[in-house]
Specification:
The complex is a heterodimer of chains A (256) and B (411). With 256 residues, chain A is an alpha/beta fold. Helices cover 30% and strands 24% of the residues of chain A. In chain A, helix 3 crosses helix 4, helix 4 packs across helix 5 and helix 5 runs parallel beside helix 6. Chain B is elongated, with a radius of gyration of 31 Å. The chains are: A alpha/beta (256), B alpha+beta (411). Chains A and B meet through helix 2 and helix 3 of A and helix 1, helix 10, helix 11 and helix 13 of B.
Chain lengths: 256, 411
């Protein structure tokens, strides 16, 4: 082929503690999204280890991984990724379906979450009838509906204007206040002010990480990092991760 | 898979199929046509197969028939015309047998059937093969015959009298009012003393269409048949259903004795009488049904095609579902239930359409289509088989999609 092998992630050694709000920055193709997919169990590494809550997940079956996604992880995407055919409330209730919750309980719970995001009047709107900001709030509501401990957001404000962006960021920040772990990929440096920790990536490696800088250099984080309080109990640990990629498009993660 | 998940899949399938009404309808149409043709064939052939058994049960289940030789039980042979010999072959049953059977207690009546063919002529010539039935007056009782006009054969009447079926009367004299007219049978003149009521049952256990037959006395029949009695069947009528079993066993042992320990006769009762005819119709139904089944294959391919389109169109949805926690098996079930819904919907429509067609056709036939659970089961069975066979591949393909690729998919 002539193309050299390429790792989307190479030598990433990262520990994220429960309750952190991590912003991941970096140029396109540096492996941010791949890292997020690995953390969200959508992708697996070719080498290295990923411990979630202290358990190695690399040997789990697809069904187990789906189970963990269903129980513990909520995704927020740049392009909202709502199912166009389903009304707002059913989109929000979707994760509960795979937890085996009954229809009435699902809709009740979805309705509760939507009211928290001031979307009660939009319950039976279809996604195309919503503005971008509303659609992203619906997506966040969906990510929250089964009380996941970890929220993964891939450029959640990428398609929004600055006003809507700040509303979304306030929501995420609010979730963070309530104790959720939030890991967000973003291109927008302004948004890092909401985060308790900022990681920048370059070419599949971690370039800078505010957690490893002294507070004196970077400034105090908004929240204590809680390492000493809750050691490995709810830790997400990624170490020496290598995900190989072949081909020119650097962000592709086809495993060789 | 939990109960709730199943409900969700069903609801999902309904929403997804509704989103493309025309596409769904056209796909279902393929299944509908296949199931409709199978249903029509089965309903009509079951109707045809029941003609004889209905006749038997109309006689209150009190009828038994004695036939010469051993029952072949081969409907295909019957189809080829080599089954029950009407002509040529010498029967092992005789008029003495009729007398013997009459002596058995509890028997209400016994009548022999000697079916001849030959020229039958009134004002016009009857078509070749018009059955000439030589019998005794007791036939009226064994077969519950009703007369439109006149009276049935009677020993007290002149032997050269005949009773005629209404259709034959029309052919010979252009009228059903043929009392007192003369019919010439194998050159012998007979006076018509009675005309039967229309029965409209060309298929029956006597193998004679009574509407098109002429009935004469068994003695006259012998006379025009070179003095030979050629008895194809002896009809026995019991007083009640309860008496029939012991009547059959007495007749069996008596005939066995008088036939010098030769088992050269068969006694049939109830469903056995109808069996050869029914089997014949079921065989025909099986063959034609299998041919109609080919259209189901075409319908099934249509289902698979549309399901593959559905899966491709909803790649992104699959990615989303996986991201929020759907297992591969959940995705498989979702699409499998959708294809099952397609084929089941088509099948129900086909079942209804099939019966509509069957009833439309049956207005031209002497029998009605039959409703039974087997035909419904066949329709549902077809639906599940087609839905599964042609739905499993698209469903597995959907489940195998990589969630990251799927989420990046632009439609």
């Amino acid at each position: 082929m002539g193309d050299s092998e390429h790792y989307a992630l190479d030598g990433v050694d990262l520990t994220i503690h429960k309750g952190e709000f991590v912003a991941i920055m970096g140029p396109s193709g540096c492996g941010k999204t791949t890292l997020l997919n690995v953390l969200g169990l959508l992708d697996t590494t070719t080498e290295g280890e990923y411990q979630l809550d202290g358990n190695d997940v690399s040997n789990l079956s697809n069904a187990r991984l789906a189970g963990i996604r269903s129980q513990q992880i909520g995704f927020v995407f740049q392009s909202f990724n709502l199912i166009a055919r389903l009304p707002v409330i059913e989109n929000v209730a979707l994760p509960l379906t795979y937890k085996g919750v009954s229809l009435t309980a699902r809709l009740k719970r979805a309705s509760e979450v939507l009211s928290r995001f001031h979307l009660s009047e939009r319950e039976y709107y279809l996604p195309y009838q919503l503005s971008g900001g509303q659609a992203q709030r619906v997506a966040i509501a969906r990510a929250l509906v089964n009380n996941p401990s970890i929220i993964l957001a891939d450029e959640p404000t990428g398609n929004l204007d600055s006003r809507a962006s700040h509303i979304i960021m306030e929501e995420l920040s609010d979730l963070h206040q309530r104790g959720n772990t939030i890991i967000m990929v973003t291109h927008n440096p302004d948004l890092t002010t909401y985060a308790s920790r900022v990681i920048t990536m370059l070419d599949g490696r971690i370039d800078t990480d505010t957690a490893t800088l002294t507070p004196a250099v970077y400034g105090l984080p908004k929240r204590p990092l809680g390492v000493s309080k809750k050691p490995a109990a709810k830790a997400v640990k990624v170490s020496r991760k290598k995900t190989k990629t072949k081909g020119r498009a650097p962000a592709r993660r086809k495993v060789v | 898979m939990s109960r709730f998940l199943l409900g969700n899949h069903v609801q999902n399938a309904r929403q997804a199929l509704r989103a493309h009404r025309l596409r769904t309808f056209l796909t279902m149409l393929g299944i509908t046509i296949g199931v409709a043709s199978v249903t029509t064939i089965l309903a009509l052939s079951a109707g045809a197969a029941q003609i004889v058994s209905h006749q038997v049960s109309d006689l209150g289940g009190t009828i038994a028939v004695v036939r010469p030789g051993l029952a072949s039980g081969n409907p295909i042979a019957g189809l080829a015309g080599t089954g029950i010999p009407h002509d040529f072959a010498t029967s092992t049953l005789t008029l003495d047998d009729v007398k013997t059977i009459t002596k058995v207690p509890d028997i209400k009546s016994v009548a022999p059937l000697m079916v001849l063919s030959g020229s039958v002529k009134g004002d016009h010539q009857a078509p070749t093969g018009t059955p000439i039935v030589a019998t005794t007056p007791a036939l009226r009782e064994t077969d519950d015959l009703t007369l439109e006009n006149g009276e049935f054969l009677d020993d007290s009447l002149d032997p050269n009298t005949a009773v005629i079926g209404p259709e034959l009367s029309n052919r010979l004299f252009d009228t059903e009012e043929s009392l007192g007219k003369t019919v010439s049978i194998r050159g012998q003149k007979f006076t018509i003393v009675g005309v039967l009521v229309h029965e409209n049952s060309p298929v029956n256990y006597n193998n004679v269409d009574f509407d098109n037959a002429v009935f004469i006395n068994v003695e006259s029949g012998k006379a025009i048949n070179q003095g030979m009695a050629q008895i194809q069947q002896i009809n026995i009528r019991a007083g009640s259903v309860a008496q029939l079993p012991h009547i059959i066993s007495s007749v069996n042992s008596l005939l066995y004795k008088t036939h010098f320990q030769n088992k050269d006769f068969t006694i049939l009762s109830g469903s056995e009488i109808a069996q050869p005819t029914s089997q014949l119709y079921y065989t025909i139904a099986g063959v034609t049904g299998a041919i109609a089944g080919i259209s189901l294959l075409v319908g099934g391919i249509g289902v698979m095609n549309i399901m593959l389109v559905n899966v491709a169109e909803r790649t992104r949805e699959i990615g989303i579902r996986k991201a929020v926690g759907a297992k591969n098996s959940d995705i498989i079930w979702q699409f499998l239930i959708e294809s099952l819904a397609l084929s089941l919907g088509g099948s129900i429509l086909g079942y209804l359409l099939g019966y509509a067609i069957a009833f439309a056709i049956s207005t031209f036939l002497p029998f009605d289509p039959v409703f039974n659970w087997q035909i419904g089961a066949v329709a549902v069975g077809i639906a599940f088989t087609v839905g599964l066979i042609f739905g499993i591949y698209p469903a597995v393909r959907a489940a195998k999609k990589d969630p990251i690729e799927a989420l990046r998919y632009f439609s």
